[in-house]
Amino acid sequence: MRLSLPINTLINLPKPRFLISPSSRYLNPNRSLTLALRTSSLRGAPVVSPRLRCCCCYWFSTEAMMTNVGEQSIPSPVELKENIELTEKERKIFDRLLSTLRYCNLDTQLRVAGGWVRDKLLGKESDDIDIAIDNMSGSEFLDKFKEYLSSRDEEVQGDTVIERNPDQSKHLETAKMRIYDQWIDFVNLRSEEYTENSRIPTMKFGTAKEDAYRRDLTINSLFYNLNSGSVEDLTERGIDDLKSGKIVTPLPAKATFLDDPLRVLRAIRFGARFGFTLDEELKEAASCEEVRVALGEKISRERIGNEIDLMISGNGPVSAVTYLSELKLFRLVFALPSSADPSPSENCGSLSQAYLEAMWRLLQTPGLGNFSGEQRRLALYAAMFLPFRKTVYKDNKGKSIPVVNHIFKFSMKRKSSDAETVMNIHQTAERFRPLVCPLEAKNDVGLEKLDWATVILEHWKSISHNDAEVPATSKIRVLTGFLLRDIKDFWRVALLTSLLLSATVDDQEIGHLDFQLEKMRETYLTVEATIHELGLDNIWDVKPLVNGREIMQIAELKGGSLIREWQQKLLTWQLANPNGTSEECKDWMREIKAKRQRTE
């Protein structure tokens, strides 16, 4: 069964489930229930503007994957723990901290702040323990803690004080100490004031309530008071928002975002991570022009890139990119050059989200192989940036630079290797496309001419023409072998990406895409099995049968480009003759050399 769905209506949470599509415009009128693959909750489902619905759509085939469920229009409540359950290590750590208060006779309240409290209430373990102190700095408390340890003849496992460094987004001093093999952060409670043109606040000591209200989201504003052993919800809505699955700011959203525009991306990331719904006021503020300008001007590209990387590496990348597109932040975040050629379409964010979702679903498919975290991350980037794979711009020297390279190196300040790997995936995916059908059918039909392999095919013809023992599948093995040696262990990612490229129907201008995921999955598994049968799984690790020194000796060369030409010929022979030996390869080389000399 194939479903037609408006772009931006699908989001992904950790456990897939089938839910009724909220749009009836594309549904089959002859069915009583038309289902779309979605996830375990409707929380976080973005509202799609009519303009986006009209400009781009895509389909997901869900054959052999259907199950019926009732319609859900209201997010189901989140189940929270009634009490925070401490692990044995956490109990020992907290006992040590409270013992310090007693030993030093301190009238001090110690609270665990933020994410640890949220995660523990959700029943998730967390090792991110930040201690907020009400009447002294973190370094001052560390001195007291050392004094307590010294009284017991115990040594400090490790400690450090990270000085305030606003230029590196470090707005206050943080003390750190290793307790029971776990690093704990210590900071004082504080309040913040922001200037108009900076996200760097002026810090001062504050109350617990002031500290709670200065935080980015209500679900991150909760405290666990070590002295009383209780959870404190000082905004009086953190627990309720956690239960109802809402992403809300403690103070008015627009003011919160103008103070620190990075909070827009954090709100999106947490909404995607937990599958929570972004508050309507929050969405309106995030998409307003004033906040968008502030995000572009006040936040460093490195900080933006860090947030995007956390989104893509998390468990809700599709939701996150959907929100970026819906809230008109996609172009701003990825800072596409104004001189890009061809110029990206107005709906490029929606197209990117469509490719990303298709890749995400394929990666989530059981039995599709084990992808490392790095392969998964770069596979999602490769899919998301597919619409820009052929787009370039002119740099200051008039040189054409791929836009994908610009996005990684300048828009997100990521490492150069990320850009190089993604661009290599795109290039290999294009080259993979004509090989997919022959690999499925296990024959060489349709491989007479390939732009990227003209020289390789010439070498193969010279080998197969003079050797009747060359296997029938040698051409496809040679071409695939060269391809895999270039992309190495990212070849599976490149294969998936090439299958996504086959999803384009015909009208790229309005972005019609047809993702038949079950068919793609079957094709992937068949091609993967063929590559395994051909013995190419780790072909990039296979050493040449003849090394450079031997080439120079047999061919009587002193160096130069002819060595490279011989290396390519010998690798072609080696791929065409998987059982060939080094001596056989050398004999073939001597024979070719002798024929060339007779001809000359």
Account of the 3D structure:
By secondary structure, the chain is an alpha+beta fold. The protein is 47% helix and 12% strand. The protein is built from 24 helices and 18 strands. The strands form six sheets. Strands 7-8-9-6-5-12-13 form a seven-stranded mixed beta sheet. A three-stranded mixed beta sheet has the order 1-4-18. A hairpin with a 5-residue loop joins β16 (392-394) and β17 (400-402). α14 (348-364) packs antiparallel against α15 (373-384) and α19 crosses α23. The longest helix is centred in the C-terminal third of the chain and has 26 residues, at 416-441. The radius of gyration is 29 Å and the shape is elongated.
Q: Give the fraction of residues assigned to helices.
A: 40-55%
Number of strands: 18
Mean pLDDT: 84
Percent of residues in β-strands: 5-15%
- Biggest pleated-sheet summary: 7 strands, mixed
Secondary structure category:
alpha+beta
Distance between the termini: 64 Å
Helix count, DSSP H or I runs of 4 or more residues:
24
Radius of gyration, rounded? 29 Å
What is the general shape? elongated
Main sheet strand line-up: 7-8-9-6-5-12-13
Low-confidence stretches: 1-55, 62-73, 506-510
InterPro entries: NT_sf, PolA_pol_head_dom
Family: Belongs to the tRNA nucleotidyltransferase/poly(A) polymerase family.
Keywords: RNA-binding, Transferase
Organism: Camelina sativa (False flax)
